[in-house]
Amino acid sequence: MSKLLLNLRYVLDDEIEHVRAMLDEHRIEYYETQPSRWGISHGGIWIREDGDLPRAKQLMADYQAKRQTRVRAENEAARRDGTAETFMDVVRAQPLRVLLIALAILVLLGLVALPAVLLRG
Q: Can you tell me where the transmembrane regions are (predicted)?
C-alpha cells in the first residue's frame, strides 16, 4: 500500500525536483498526486512499496538536514551582505498589500475584542 512521503503544500519547485531526482537515483518507485482544483489538497509524493518507505524517509531526513544547513547559510550571508529582503523592502514593493493586511489584522483584533467590550458595557 502506498505511503505519503512528502505533502507538497508550500514546497518549492526546486525542492520537489531534488526529491524526485533523489528517489530516482536510489531506485525508489513513487508517484505524485496533483493539487486539487479548489486548493483542498496540494498534492504529494507517494512511495509505492511499503518496504521502501523507511529508506525513503531516511533519505528525505538527510536531504532536508542538508537543505536546511545550506539555506540558513545563504540567508545569513544575505544578511551580512545587506541583500536580504527586509520588511521595508516589502512595503516599498507592495504598499497596498501591506496596508490591506494591516487593516485585516486590525479588523480581526476588533472582532476578537468585541465580546469583551459588549459584556463590560
A: 98-119
